[in-house]
Amino acid sequence: MTVNTHTRRMPGWLMALNNIVVFLLRSPTSAFGLAVLAVLILTAIFAPLIATHDPYVQALGNVLQPPGNGHLFGTDELGRDIFSRLVYGARITLTIIFLVSIVVGPIGLVIGTSAGYLGGKFDMVLMRITDIFLSFPSLILSLAFVAALGPSLNNAIIAIALTSWPPIARLARAEAMTFRKADYIAAARLQGASTSRIIVKSIMPMCLPSVLIRLTLNMATVILTAAGLGFLGLGAQPPMPEWGAMIATGRRYMLDSWWLVTFPGVSILSVSLAFNLLGDGLRDALDPKQMNRR
Amino acid sequence: MSVSVEVRNLSISFGAGASAVKVLPGVSFSVERGECFGLVGESGSGKSTVLRCVSLLTDFWKGEVLIDGRSVRDMPLIERCRTLQMVFQDPYGSLHPRQSVRTVLNEPLVIHKLGDREERIRRAITDVGLPVSFLDRFPHQLSGGQRQRVAIARALILEPSLLLLDEPTSALDVSVQAEILNLLQRLRNERGFTYIMVTHDLAVVDHMCDRFAVMLRGEVTEILPHEAIAVNGASHPYARELIGASLEYEGIR
Fold first, then answer.
1. Best of B96, B104, B135, B154 to disrupt the A interface by mutation (most A CBs within 10 Å)?
2. Which of A129, A145, A150, A179 has the fewest CB atoms inside 10 Å of its own CB, making it the most exposed?
3. Angle (nearest 5°) at CA B194 between B190 and B197
4. Does B75 touch chain A (CB under 8 A)?
5. Smallest Cβ distance to B78: which of A192, A201, A205?
6. What is the bridge-based pairing of β-strands B70-71 and B84-87?
């Protein structure tokens, strides 16, 4: 009997994951988001196999070539293959998204749930701090951080992470406040569960779906902010093939050589669009009311 | 395994200053070892608040609550949890939607560092009349009555001696109500629990309780033995009216 129950439990969450994917694929918009994301991840993993050229090798005799002639998306002002640079740029984009999300998610969740559950002065202090961060336009605050820390990709990631946790904390707090009076929390208290145990074991699982959705929607903003910082020369530094930075350098040749800005621009657009659509789909898939059907 | 409870001058008010609302002006009653004590009264008369005060879920009350002669406030948390447990009114809200029955029952054992967890979990679930295979179910896969059984199992797993029942059957179907009441009755006969039970339903009181208190606006108007229901032996006018109304209702049915 014990063996039986244990073998049934593992497929339990796998099945839930499978259900969510099936649900997402059912609607065309979120299926598009999922597909673009799959392409992005596969591209990043297999970049050396997909790229036709070395993204860093310059060919000064072959600059600003239009698409064609062995260069799918043409070449840039230093003769580098734009397609290969975009392919390697996918790695940078994914790194930014991944690092920002794993920093921002837990911070927002911990601050939000503890403020929401504990309430009182603790809530007051944490939320006023959140308010301060929230009242800055995130790009400007990132600019200030990068200016203080020095321009580099890592600093851009830190800056973006510092500016994108407040909305998540707010969301988690609002969710936590609706659950703190629930009977199952009262029951946990009567069992002698410590405050931190209640927050981690009872409150956080309830806030997780909406935080995940928010995080996914947030990724679109993260990509845009990273691209913006790259464009301003404060994020990825040359010769890194970061998409925003590619647009920034291509801008000077934009009138004669449209391919320099178009392809990185389309990449940024489609990836951030994909995250938005996926987030929307996840909102439907993780809706607790619909969970009951599974 | 059973304890006596004495509530002396329990008073609480919500809010501060001029807008403060005195919910309980001063409640006193005592419950003997192994007794089932009912609290009845209309909505908002403070019945549930008494339970929340006794269990220290609400802790800013004044007065004294003595369990076996010791104040609940002086009991260490772990000991208090193992002495008193509560069953809530709404089985749809009292189980964590994302925890399986096994997790729900395992959690208190982990907190209290008790051994033989699997053994205890199985005993608790079979004690409330559910099959062991239900352990891997989630609340949304259970019916209302089954959920309430799980909630009772959760309260029992720490082997308390005092159970606070906050309208444990009011959210359930009539036939399921009877099942749950019989379950509670059986558990009391087997283990000699002391019950304090809040309810709207005097028929439930008649079936379950030895004595009951009629509450009105936060005050205990009268404490009566359950035999007083059938003959309407109350002396306080409000208690008389309440029992009379209930008898009339039962009679029509």
1. B96
2. A150
3. 115
4. no
5. A192
6. unpaired
A170 part of a folded domain: yes
Confidence of residue A203 (pLDDT cuts 50, 70, 90): very high
Tell whether A15 is covered by a domain. Answer: no
Host H or E run for residue A174: helix A166-179
Determine contact: B180 vs chain A, CB below 8 A: no
Q: B83 to chain A: which residues are within 8 Å by CB? A: none
Q: Any CB–CB contact under 8 A between B230 and chain A?
A: no
Query: What is d(CA A19, CA A25) in angstroms, rounded to the nearest whole number?
Result: 10
Residue B211 to residue B194: CA distance in whole angstroms: 12
Structure tokens at A289: 């009311």
Residue A222 lies in a domain: yes
Question: Mutation test of the interface with chain B: which of A9, A190, A293, choosing the one with the most B Cβ atoms within 10 A?
Answer: A190
pTM equals: 0.84
Minimum Cα–Cα distance from B79: chain A residue: A192
Interface check for B85 against chain A (CB to CB < 8 A): the answer is: yes
Which CATH number goes with the domain that contains A161?
A: 1.10.3720.10
Structural domains in chain B, CATH included, are 5-252 (3.40.50.300)
Residue-wise pLDDT for A103-119, tens only, equals: 999 999 999 999 999 99
Q: Give the nearest chain A residue to B112 (CA atoms).
A: A192
B119-177 tens-digit pLDDT: 999 999 998 989 999 998 889 889 988 999 999 999 999 989 999 999 888 888 888 88
Instruction: Work out the angle between the directed axes of helices B144-156 and B101-111 (0-180°, nearest 10).
Output: 10
Residue B80 confidence (pLDDT) above 50: yes
The pLDDT tens digits for A20-56 are: 888 888 889 999 999 999 999 999 999 999 998 899 9
Domain range spanning residue A209? 53-276
Cβ neighbours around B250 below 10 Å, total: 13
How many structural domains does chain A have?
1
